[in-house]
């Protein structure tokens, strides 16, 4: 019996050691591995059959007084045969899983399957040209952006004050003060037109309030494609705890409430449409909110238009508050005033739409924006990075390249927000001392390389959601910190055509980067004027 067990163990060990998963051949494709694997498994099967025949012959020659021992050996054979089968099956499952899920380090020669791919490590980046590009960009843009922000903030204050005056304080939503977000307020704006993004929080009139249901809540039943979203329910204060009925019905002139006198405002229940909810539900609808906000902004501008010597028009009728200001000189400033709902007492906001949205989530799902936290994170790093650090210069360069490539080949799934997300990941993972201006070209390659790997893996996680590296002093909500990471490239996983177009866009951007930077560099090495950055972009 010991001999039989020893032979079976040797067969199993030989099968494992000769399995192609343990000693894969280099430069072999998966189809070739599959053929070789099938051939080896067939050989092992024949070998096992031969061993089984030998064992059966030996067992049949034993004496009759060893019948019980023979029975035990028979069971042992079946047991070890089953074990060997399970081992083979486990190896095959591991091989299949590793082929699908293993994330390999990206080599220069193995980035994308397409021929002619470009690697950031092979790009020609001249430090002097990069430095001149950013000096001119920072000097001219900083001054102009400061003037634009000052104008936009004053105009927005005036417009929102006029909006509050045209709203019914007892029936309409209450509008708060705006908050500036995005590249203009984070000091890395580089491309024209001059665009300012402002979020404007609003809240329901008394006695109503908002209740929130996040995608990461334990009781949430949101679809998988609604990650980083939430639902906003409009509830009436006291409706679940026996509130006074005088606020829900009209008592008329002949009846008095013993709790509230006539000077108190009596608010009768409103229908879902009056509360800007989706049809037949109590959940706040983005479409209803944008319609209300657009009408209110139009009325507000009508009341103050005589005070200003410029023209204001709506750029996009599907996006509330997308304004274009045209001065007599021909200069244009773009404003995105976005109605939002604040998540309790945090700096996270449910937004009706993003300015760069190609396809917004359907009602009643509201995307959650962490733009204020991202702005604060950049401020956090600005205090710790070396003087004249290159992190914002890197973001300006890649944003410029992306914008110019979009003008050449059209839009793709890649946005400036993805580029900023890459920078935030690198800031959270690298030492502050590595962001000095002397390392500008290396950090720029890091940003492009990170994006290239993310595209290859179709995975770019949100910088703040589920990221334990985010500093505690930012006070990101605990439920968001502990949530599962959200893949911003999920659409690329589901849409192969979109993924292919985005890869081509990025590869062309890398291929054209050196030419574009040199062409639009404001100064040549001899100091002569080459192109005006502000005029060209």
Walk me through the topology.
Blueprint: H1 2-17, H2 30-60, H3 67-101, H4 127-166, E1 174-175, E2 179-181, H5 183-186, E3 194-203, E4 208-214, E5 229-236, H6 286-304, E6 310-314, E7 322-327, E8 332-342, E9 349-351, E10 365-369, H7 371-382, H8 391-409, H9 416-429, H10 440-457, H11 478-481, H12 490-494, H13 496-520, H14 533-536
Parallel strand pairs: 3-8
Antiparallel strand pairs: 1-3, 2-3, 4-5, 5-10, 6-7, 7-8, 8-9, 9-10
Helix pairs in contact: 1-2, 1-3, 4-6, 8-9, 8-10, 8-13, 9-10, 10-13
Give an overview of the whole structure.
By secondary structure, the chain is α+β, with helices and mostly antiparallel strands. The chain has 14 helices and ten strands. The chain has helices at residues 2-17, 30-60, 67-101, 127-166, 183-186, 286-304, 371-382, 391-409, 416-429, 440-457, 478-481, 490-494, 496-520, 533-536; strands spanning 174-175, 179-181, 194-203, 208-214, 229-236, 310-314, 322-327, 332-342, 349-351, 365-369. Helix 1 packs parallel to helix 3 (67-101) and helix 8 (391-409) runs antiparallel to helix 9. The chain starts with a helix and ends with a helix. Residues 20-33, 95-111 and 523-537 have low confidence and may be disordered.
């Amino acid at each position: 019996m010991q001999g039989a067990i020893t032979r079976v163990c040797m067969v199993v060990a030989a099968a494992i050691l000769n399995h192609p998963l343990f000693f894969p051949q280099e430069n072999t494709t998966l189809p070739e591995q599959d053929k070789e694997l099938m051939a080896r498994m067939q050989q092992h099967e024949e070998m096992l059959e031969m061993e089984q025949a030998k064992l059966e012959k030996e067992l049949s020659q034993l004496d009759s007084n060893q019948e019980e021992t023979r029975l035990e050996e028979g069971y042992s054979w079946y047991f070890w045969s089953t074990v060997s089968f399970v081992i083979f099956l486990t190896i095959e499952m591991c091989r299949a899983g590793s082929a699908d899920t293993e994330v390999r380090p990206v080599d220069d020669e193995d980035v994308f399957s397409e021929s002619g791919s470009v690697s950031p490590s092979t790009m020609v980046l001249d430090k002097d040209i990069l430095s001149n590009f950013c000096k001119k960009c920072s000097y001219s843009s900083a001054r102009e952006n400061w003037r634009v922000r000052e104008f936009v903030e004053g105009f927005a204050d005036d417009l929102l004050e006029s909006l509050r005056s045209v709203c019914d304080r007892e029936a309409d939503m209450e509008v708060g003060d705006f908050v500036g977000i995005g590249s203009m307020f984070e000091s890395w704006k580089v491309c024209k037109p001059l665009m300012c993004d402002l979020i404007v929080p609003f809240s329901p009139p008394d006695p109503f309030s908002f209740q929130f249901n996040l995608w990461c809540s334990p009781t949430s039943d949101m679809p998988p494609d609604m990650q980083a979203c939430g639902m906003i329910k409009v509830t009436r204060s006291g409706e679940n705890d026996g509130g006074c009925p005088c606020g829900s019905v009209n008592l008329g002139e002949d009846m008095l409430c013993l709790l509230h006198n006539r000077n108190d405002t009596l608010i009768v229940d409103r229908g879902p449409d009056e509360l800007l909810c989706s049809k037949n539900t109590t959940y706040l609808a983005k479409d209803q909110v944008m319609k209300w906000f657009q009408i209110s902004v139009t009325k507000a501008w009508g009341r103050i238009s005589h005070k200003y010597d410029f023209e204001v028009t709506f750029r996009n009728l599907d996006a509330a508050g997308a304004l274009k200001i045209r001065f007599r000189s021909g200069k244009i400033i773009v404003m995105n005033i976005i109605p939002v709902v604040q998540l309790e007492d945090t700096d996270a906001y449910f937004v009706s739409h993003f300015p760069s949205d190609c396809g917004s989530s359907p009602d009643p799902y509201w995307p959650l924006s962490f733009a204020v936290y991202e702005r604060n994170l950049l401020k956090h790093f600005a205090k710790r990075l070396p003087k004249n650090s290159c992190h914002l210069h890197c973001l300006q360069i890649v944003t410029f390249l992306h914008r110019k490539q979009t003008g050449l080949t059209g839009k793709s799934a890649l946005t400036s927000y993805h580029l900023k997300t890459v920078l935030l990941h690198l800031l959270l993972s690298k030492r502050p001392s590595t962001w000095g201006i002397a390392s500008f070209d290396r950090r720029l390659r890091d940003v492009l390389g990170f994006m290239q790997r993310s595209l290859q893996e179709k995975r770019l996680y949100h910088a703040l959601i589920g990221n334990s590296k985010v500093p505690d002093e930012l006070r990101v909500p605990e439920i968001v910190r502990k949530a599962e990471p959200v893949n911003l490239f999920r659409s690329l996983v589901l849409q192969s055509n979109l993924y292919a177009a985005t890869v081509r866009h990025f590869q062309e951007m890398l291929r054209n980067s050196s030419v574009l930077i040199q062409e639009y560099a404001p100064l040549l090495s001899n100091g002569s004027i080459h192109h005006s950055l502000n005029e060209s972009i």
